[in-house]
Queue: 3 jobs
Job 1
Amino acid sequence: MSSQIIPVEPFDYVVFGGTGDLAERKLLPALYHRQLAGQLTEPTRIIGASRTAMTNEEYRNYTLAALKEHLKAEELEETEVANFLARIHYVSVDAKSDQGWDDLKKLLDTGKDIVRAFYLAVSPSIFGDIADKIRDHKLITKSTRIVVEKPIGRDLASAQALNDTIGKVFKEEQIFRIDHYLGKETVQNLMALRFANALYEPLWNSAHIDHVQITVAESVGLEGRVTYYDKAGALRDMVQNHILQLLCLVAMEAPSSLDAEAVRDEKLKVLRSLKPITDGNVEKQTVRGQYRAGASAGGPVNGYQDELGAASDTETFVAIKAEINNWRWAGVPFYLRTGKRLATRMSEIVIAFKPIPHSIFGESAGRIEANKLVIRLQPDEGVKQWLMIKDPGPGGMRLRHVSLDMSFAQAFDVRNPDAYERLLMDVIRSNQTLFMRRDEVEAAWNWVDPILKGWEEIGQKAQGYTSGTWGPSQAIALIERDGRTWHEND
Ligand code: NAP
């Protein structure tokens, strides 16, 4: 089975930070893939913009090098690469001065009214400068949008200030706050599973679900993002955005349609229903951890502070028992965990159903496991429904726990597109369903801020854990205290 590609209308994508890591690793390869898929139409252009002086030709060489570095050789088709490079332009622009802005204006003002998207792949500290320059140089047309990357603030107050800064220049419907987790195939499949099937929704509540687990595990350490990460930590870097967005998609009520406002209204209600975690319960409901030396990918690795080269109490791991104060989810804990240098790179959502109320099978049938729905985001995106079945054969009634396994790579004869590919095109289509609205971002901070304050007030220290494990023992205790266990990687 293959999917249909619907071409998008022509656009100019201006990538501020066109020479940065995000553009090189993600944005340019994602846009090339859309070229390869036949989705780009004439006269689409991609315009790199940053301070470094470069000609168009030099930036095309930079782009080609990025494609060669980050894509497989067989993905680089000569004609398509040439067609893609012909779309690439570059302007040297400084967010902090007038340098280059007239050149950018000249390049953009072609007289054709096509979609214009500004992607801010730069530090949030210059979002405001860029927004102001865009306004001052009259670069906003009827079909202009702006895309901003995380982090959106480091607490509620700074997020509000950043949103105000951008909001002074752009209307909310022009602002696309990207969370690339929402562009993942499986994340959207979660909506399809829940709302395109009659099977799950009647069971999707506290009467039938025992608990939910959301794990976003990385095996890597700091990877160069030292200054940013040490100031942020795992709660700000992963929980405030990616994990809470996943929690919202699991927990929200059925929206009236897939319309962006309908979906985002429902997600917002979930965020506002999260039970506050404050200094009174933060110790019981959360665990902070920091990796020590250990082994990763078979080799020895240093601890966080050695990598950092300084003493630090920043958490590289966090586990939280979250609760949602509404009728659907009362009494159903959502166990959240994320960390660096964990045993493996893996992100998944586990919906753990309640055990059967009574077994008609004798002891010889074996243990009856409760059903689980496992939604795997990475690696190997797919869904597994764990069920009990009879062990085949004439040996009497013996039961076995097996999974109905739907690995997307195997089930569909298509390449699994990177999340950025979909999101970049959604910007052009002006579809905000998979982007965060201002009030969502701020509601998420509103829940995260008291946890940060609680940690500070009670002096909750990051517990050491050996690199290559599943985090501090306190994280295992957090769930085992409730008579549950973290889902094993299967
Ligand atoms: P980066 O590698 O440091 O790149 C920053 C870019 O900004 C460079 O192209 C730089 O080019 C440009 N720049 C800096 N000052 C400028 C100015 N005054 N005017 C115009 N351009 C300027 O950063 P990154 O890793 O790509 O990250 C960019 C943003 O995305 C950050 O907000 C980051 O948190 C976010 N993000 C990144 C990733 C990732 O995987 N890298 C993932 C999620 C979110 P010049 O020096 O030539 O000006």
Note: The chain has two domains: 11-149, 182-416+437-480.
Job 2
Amino acid sequence: MAAAEPLAPGGITLLADAALEGRNTLRVPARASLLADVRDAASIGELLATPALRDQPLLVLGEGSNILFAHDWPGLVLTVAARGIEILDEGDNAARVRVAAGENWNDFVRWALGHGFAGLENLVLIPGTVGAAPIQNIGAYGVEVCEFVHAVETFDRQQGRIIELANDECAFAYRDSLFKRERDRYIVTAVEFELPRRREPRVAYAGIAEELTAIGAAGPTPLAVAEAVARLRTRKLPDPALIPNAGSFFKNPLLAEELAATLARDHPGLPCWPAGDERRKLSAAWLIEQCGFKGYRDGDAGISGRHALVLVNHGHASGADLLRVARHVAAGVHDRFGVKLEAEPRIV
Ligand code: EPU
């Protein structure tokens, strides 16, 4: 393998025939023809305009916590490694904060809590980078990141420059955004957040109130809610550092109200939530568990025994092994309930 060689300008490190096993949290072995770590987002344009790279297929990778490599990548894998958190504007009630794409999401949540901002506490411990957060509009425990996004800075490959898109231009939806739909066009370089000082705590999600009581919290302060959510997540979700996974592997399916009502009537106990637009969101984990797949294993690929939405690598599963399990599970759910499950992570 070629040695890493720093290229001037702009602090880009390029590596040929690079191993990606350490760059995806499912720890799947895969290789990239070229891997570029870009520490200065301003040099993305120059890099992509290089004749040798111009026609290469491009894959943008953060910390690899939402991707399944079923194949090698026959082109350039680019990581925006830019760092920095900057308060742009601060009033009595809120601040606008610009965070470079390469910052770790959970570190930023901790930074926000430490600086007395409220709102991100429900999103504590989500793996990945700040740049990846708007792409799939990360969400947990009743909060989605789009509620705090003021604007997204992104390299637009069509225009060949960095542009800023306001929140309402980002087409945010459940685990979805413009950046996910047009992933070959946009490379997120930074996110501007609007962070309030005070905010009604969001504690209605199942388990948070009980957890606040268990830790003896005097009230639902942002720090106490963060602690409660961290305890819930740690208990429910397998730790990717111990057992490789990519969080929820399937999205919770959104169904028309009528169809959801019929399913709920036929299957008592099926968790079902209103999801706007005359739709309801069903629990994919419940559907999977009912089919007997919780803890299912085929070689080293399987479904977590802790949480039925999580695909896990017990050791040396390949991307193809994991994909086979995911397809088997989705087919089982479809046969039994007639519901199609969609993968949440990007499948390469
Ligand atoms: N459930 C089961 N079996 C299980 C797990 C859950 O039947 O093994 C049922 C339970 O009835 C439970 C319900 O599913 O009450 C909901 O479970 P949970 O609170 O764990 O949430 P989820 O809908 O399965 C979603 C997100 C998670 C996020 C949690 C908490 C998606 C695809 N997943 O999971 O996000 O942490 O809510 O808000 O929306 C991720 O995206 O990677 C992720 C982990």
Note: The chain has three domains: 5-80, 85-196, 245-347.
Job 3
Amino acid sequence: MTAIGFIGLGNMGAPMAANLVKAGHQVTGYDLVPQAVAALAAAGGRAAASAAEAIAAAEVVITMLPAGPQVREVYLGNAGVLGRAPQGALLIDCSTIDVDTARAVAAAAREAGFDMLDAPVSGGTAGAAAATLTFMVGGEAHAFDRAKPVLSAMGRTIVHTGPAGNGQVVKICNNMLLAISMIGVCEALTLGQKLGLAPQTLFDVVSQSTGQCWALTGYCPVPGPVPSSPANRDYAPGFTAAMMLKDLRLAQQAAGAAAAPTPLGAAAAALYQLFVDSSGGALDFSAIYRFIAKSDTKI
Ligand code: NAD
């Protein structure tokens, strides 16, 4: 049993914290939203009235926050984690944030005497609920070894990707590739249909051919071929287009800083921006199919 302070009990954090409770850990949680804290208490955790209270006796601190500014505030701000966590506590940020913030906060943590890991996840809310998340972990090897038993209660695949920030690098590279391949699948389905081909026929052939990819065979953006894909439930998320846009922006920001050429990543970001601006943000990211297939879409 490990004493865990958990900050950020939203769509992902709530089921992750509940799985830690189920695994026998003592979880004290805090969120700006009081109902989220109450829900953790109802699931067997402990409610805290502040971040400082949540981590006061923590051996491990886990954060699952929206973006870089919240991570900076929670770790570096007045009464933040670095000023309040017990000596020797292991700090794990599971949020998806920009690489620079991940590396800056990890450096500040090291200076304050803490082991810190960035451990963003893939698998979405379903993976968080089922404890089958993939963790991409950046930081020191000995910190990774300390974290593994705790992360195992929330995920199935836990990979050490190198030093601080590398978990975020893997995450944005994966999601940039996913967005590009989803757009490619949507364009192929649209072209096929406009030339008179049924989506199912295209699916049957391409899923056995060189154009095969997960966006098609695991998450097909048209209803029918893959029964579990969001296209069959009117594109209820899943992983929202707004979240995909957030990750594409992080990728473009990092690509600019590293002078890495990512022309298709830039095009994917521009296309998701258009889709989100046209009120698609709350839909699953595969709903960009509708946007691309609309004959009057000017891209
Ligand atoms: P969310 O908005 O549902 O949850 C974030 C929570 O953090 C909210 O409950 C909010 O009240 C809380 N919060 C914000 N600032 C705080 C502060 N200063 N102190 C305490 N609590 C604070 O978001 P989510 O869907 O749970 O996503 C969390 C992170 O995980 C994001 O970085 C997201 O990109 C990433 N992610 C999400 C998914 C997904 O499918 N939802 C998948 C993979 C990764």
Note: The chain has a mean pLDDT of 96.
